[in-house]
Design goal:
The protein is mostly helical and about 120 residues long. The chain is about 85% helix and about 0% strand. The chain has two helices and no strands. The N and C termini lie far apart (about 90 Å). The model has no long low-confidence stretch (mean pLDDT about 85).
């Protein structure tokens, strides 16, 4: 083989190596940019979550302050709290029952004319 062919082969190999390295670096940098954008988005979500957690912990603290102690509180306060809870629960049950009845009426009334072709 003539000497110039070796130079040509090595030149092609070096150019191919440089191209592979350049394309590899471009892919790595593009992935890094996408990861950085996604990281910024996740940091924003993390900020929202920490704000929600702080808000929930404040609500928990308020709940603890409002809660009455069965051991150290007065019997009248505890009875009033239990009665209030019972009334709220009964109200929620009645509201659910009313919604179920209304939904049932909608279902039965909507089925009355489902075979009519003249609408």
């Amino acid at each position: 083989m003539p000497g110039w062919s070796w130079w040509l082969i090595w030149a092609v190999l070096v150019v191919a190596l440089v191209l592979v390295v350049v394309f590899g670096i471009r892919r790595v940098l593009a992935a890094y940019r996408r990861a950085r954008v996604e990281g910024d988005r996740l940091n924003g979500l993390l900020g929202q979550l920490t704000a929600s957690v702080d808000e929930l912990s404040d609500a928990g603290r308020r709940f603890e302050e409002q809660r009455t102690s069965a051991l150290f509180g007065s019997r009248a306060d505890l009875a009033a709290a239990v009665e209030d809870h019972r009334l709220r629960r009964a109200h929620r049950r009645q509201a659910r029952r009313d919604r179920r009845i209304a939904r049932g009426r909608l279902i039965t009334h909507s089925a009355e004319h489902w075979t009519d072709t003249h609408v």
